[in-house]
Amino acid sequence: MRIKIINGPNLNMLGKRQPEIYGSISFEAYFSILATTFSGHELSYFQSNHEGAIIDEIQDMMNGTYDGLVINPAAYTHTSIAIADALAMLSVPIAEVHISNIYEREPFRQHSFVQPLAAVTIAGKGLEGYKTAIEFLIGKNGNAHN
Ligand code: DQA
Asked: In this structure, which topology does domain 2-68+81-140 adopt according to CATH?
């Protein structure tokens, strides 16, 4: 299965950014663990701090080169109708991930524009949430091997 992972703003700072909330390893380090764990699949990773760049990346997925998307839009989760509109164009399943439990944090984090478009939302499981999201997409694809 070909799976794209998209991370939004400030997630390039994982490992350095509020480690008590977001953990102490970089996403690049975690991505190499994911790539090994799911070596039978094609994973690719994109991160941007820019809303338009994230939208461009989502639009690129419309050429059919991926079978599923894992997205953590970070703060854009709570603000970006434009990212939600781009996601609404996709026909592949979307798994929304948040490292922290957005439902137990400040009220402004508790609303997600992405959640209605996602087949699953995983929040508060740390980086392991990405692994769970990929497992979900693989299961949905009816493909049991990893
Ligand atoms: C986040 C939660 C968002 O509220 C926050 O703005 C982030 C990261 C998470 O992964 O827990 O940047 O999406």
From this structure: Rossmann fold (3.40.50)
pTM here is: 0.95
Structure tokens at 96: 């929304």
Alpha-carbon span 51 to 22, nearest angstrom: 21
Q: How confident is the model at residue 144 (pLDDT cuts 50, 70, 90)?
A: very low
Ligand 1 interacting residues, C-beta cut-off 6 A: 10, 72, 74-75, 77, 98-100, 102, 109
134/83 Cα distance (integer angstroms): 21
Nearest-atom number in ligand 1 for the CA of 123 is 11
pLDDT tens digits, one per residue of 59-116: 999 999 999 999 999 999 999 999 999 999 999 999 999 999 999 999 999 999 999 9
21 CA → ligand 1 middle, Å: 9
Domain-wise residue ranges, the chain:
2-68+81-140
Q: Of 37, 29, 26, which is closest to residue 3 (Cα–Cα)?
A: 37
Alpha carbon dihedral 115, 122, 87, 69, in 10-degree steps, equals -160
